[in-house]
Specification:
This protein has 653 residues and is of the alpha+beta class. The chain is 57% helix and 17% strand. The protein folds into 4 domains: 11-106; 186-399, no CATH class; 407-577, no CATH class; 579-653, no CATH class. The chain has helices at 11-30, 51-121, 123-151, 155-213, 219-281, 285-307, 313-338, 345-371, 374-381, 387-399, 430-440, 502-515, 568-573, 585-589; strands at 446-456, 461-469, 474-480, 486-491, 521-529, 532-541, 544-556, 561-566, 596-597, 601-607, 610-621, 624-631, 637-646, 649-652. Helix 5 (219-281) runs antiparallel to helix 6 and helix 7 runs parallel beside helix 10 (387-399).
Length: 653
Amino acid sequence: MEKKIGKNVSSGAKKVERVEKEQELQAQAAGTPPKKKTPVTKNAKKSTPSPKKEKRVQKAVKQEKAAAEKRLDAAKKKAERKERKLMKRAEIKQKKIERKARLQEKKLARKEMIAKKRAERKQSRIDRKAALKEKRIERHAEKIARREMLKNESKAEKQKRIAREKKDRLALKAKKRESHDKAREERAKAREAARVRKAENKENKRAHKTVRKSRTAGFGGWLAAVISLGVVCLALATVVTAGGFRMNEMNVTAENGYRSTLYEMLSVSEDLDNNLSKLRVSSGNNEQRKLLTNVLVDSALLESALERVPVDQATSTDISSFVNKTGAYARTLLGKLAAGHTLTEKERNTVIYLYNVNDKLCRELNELVLNMEQGEFRAFLKGTEGTVSQKFGEMGQTSKEEPEEIVDAPFSGEGNVKENRLTKLEEVTSTRAEELLRGYMEAYHISEMQYTGETASRDMNCYNFVMTDDNGVELFAQVTKNGGKLAFFDLYEACEDKNFTVEGCDALAREYLKTLGIENVEAVWMSDAGMVADITYVSYDDGVLGYPDMIKVRVCESKGRVIGIDAKGYLVNYTQRDLKAGISEAQAREKLSGVETEEGRLALIPVDGEEVLAYEYACTYGEDEYVIYLNARTGEEEEVFIVRNGLQGRYLR
């Protein structure tokens, strides 16, 4: 800071000037001209009235200069101290950053070393798992081949096959039933004859004892009594035997009716199984409508047959609930197809869930019909606990199985909505796609990469690649033919220890997405399934969640790295949008009734192939959790999800 020295003169200098002015005034009053001041140079000494005054002036000036220099030195020292302090802080901060970077590098190196050792130790286990996986794939392929064979079966051939199998089963059952009935009748006759003989012997003994005690003599009376008694016993035995035969005949008729109902249930369940199996893979609207109509009819027939089987109330309610739910869902999908819409991924997953449950019911019912003994079925009809009632109880529990939809975010699997953004990008060759993929997978130390062909889907065409890292771990990836974007990859690696939290996995996933050029995302669904964190992201622009622009990321909690990604929804749908709500969030929240909720947020959701702006609310009703979406222009309810907690994480229904 600049200091101006000598700006203010001392009190001695002022006194000198005042004396000179007084002398000039006195000279003017006396009429004598004032003495002219002799000009002095800059370095010449000033004349002073007296040496003492001059010394005082010089002393004052020196003191002022010394004080100014002292202040200047103090200011310089203060500035130097401040600068040293700032430099010291900067050095400490830089050292902390360097130390943190070294620790991070050391930590990453240690983790890589541990991962490498574990991979080496578990290589044999991975090989065994790979072999088991290949066997499962082979079995699955055989199952698909059989289903394809059944799928190509004509309706006439199918009816003939079902009729033939049913006829064989009925013939076998009829033969068994005849042998059992014959043996039962013979045993009943033998028991009845033994009972008649026993009754005759007892009456004979009683009559003989009575005759002995009687004082009346005579053989004729005794003989007449014995003959009369025998005739009465024979008549009674005849009546009882005839009534027993009639009762047995009625029981056999009832049993045959119930058996016929079981065969009918099995036949309808098999037909329902075939229709649901075909519906899983069908993509044409006409075929889907035909199959859904068959499912609706089969559900009604199965419900009618179930009402005629004497199962307990709880089991009947469980199975009937599943059958009714299947029919109601088929009716809903038929209405949607009739309106010109297509089935979503979520609806296809529900069809798969219905097929899986019905398939188990069909197999359990088939096992019951084929292995049921005569005595077991008769005991079941009498209400006695046994194998048959236990089997029906198992079927009731099977019908209550929940769908296996885990780690599923709202509106997942919707695919392309409105315009496909990939179609505007330039096509790349497989060679260029391989170069881009090596850049995407740079952090995975890829040692081998093999191009395995193309995959053509409804929304995009992709190049397929199989890769192997330095540890021999296999990876699979897909790169879009338009634009060369990473659409999917999966890492076949076991995660057995929990070393990272879900929040830490979220940070790792965001860092990886940044390497792909994706930053404007928000996590809308997190689930901790085993040792893998499943996180779903959507685009987030101007405070609006874009559910059509969805990315699913899987992070291994053992090694802290991304082991899977599915960005197809983001690639085909993401674009900048100009969105405005018609009503405020508070106005929309007023339309919610009976639930507890906090402030909602804007979200763009897919509804029947169109993008709809809505308010998203996380709600609770009692102990249940819901996610509700209200139209941001009309306030009408667009979608409701219920949140469930399963063994493998949270999922939606």
